[in-house]
Amino acid sequence: MPVPLSGAVLAVLDRLLPADDPVAAGLRAQLPHTGMSPGCECGCATVHLHVAKGAVAPVEAPRREFASARIEAADGTPRGGIVLFVEGGYLSWLEIYSYDDPIRAWPSPCEVHPDG
Q1: Which of 9, 14, 16 is nearest to 39 (CA)?
Q2: In the Cβ-directed half-sphere of 73, how many Cα atoms lie within 13 Å?
Q3: Tell me, what DSSP letter sits at residue 54?
Q4: Which among 81, 65, 75, 74 is positioned nearest to 12, based on CA atoms?
Q5: Does the predicted model carry a pTM greater than 0.70?
Q6: Alpha carbons 92 and 84: distance in angstroms, whole number
Q7: Distance between CA 66 and CA 110 in Å, rounded?
Q8: Which residues of 75-89 are buried (b: 16+ CB within 10 A; e: fewer)?
Q9: Structural domains of the chain, count
Q10: Are 51 and 89 spatial neighbours (Cβ–Cβ below 8 Å)?
Q11: 88: alpha, beta or left, given left = phi > 0 and alpha = psi -120 to 50?
């Protein structure tokens, strides 16, 4: 059963969805209608995103892997990355991966460095 998006997940999504991008703006409009559930069995923080599709319109996303970011420790050491997936015009899942042990909690926004 989905639960409301956590503050940490919302902060990461805020970093991945630039306000000046029209497609990202459409995805941002989905956030108030989105819940989350655990997305991986390895113990990492990956979550599935569940949008109430009747409450908000889909967007025409140019690709399934809509956005990505690097995760770096405060000293600049690479820790892993994040990928935001969109399916059928709706937010689908937020994957987190690591270069070592699974990342079990969402990083602070200052550790998230969007690609491109």
Answers
A1: 9
A2: 8
A3: T
A4: 81
A5: yes
A6: 8
A7: 20
A8: eeeebbbbbbbbeeb
A9: 1
A10: no
A11: left
CB distance 6 to 106 below 8 Å? yes
CA dihedral (115, 97, 8, 38) in degrees, to 10, reads 130
- Chunked into runs of 10 residues, the chain (116 residues) has average pLDDT values of 96 96 96 96 94 96 95 94 98 96 93 92
| Separation between Cα atoms, residue 116 and residue 5, nearest integer Å | 25
Domain residue limits at 65? 3-114
106 and 8 Cβ atoms separated by less than 8 Å? yes
Instruction: Give me the residue label for tokens 């989105």.
Output: 34
Instruction: List alpha helices for 17-109, DSSP H.
Output: 22-28
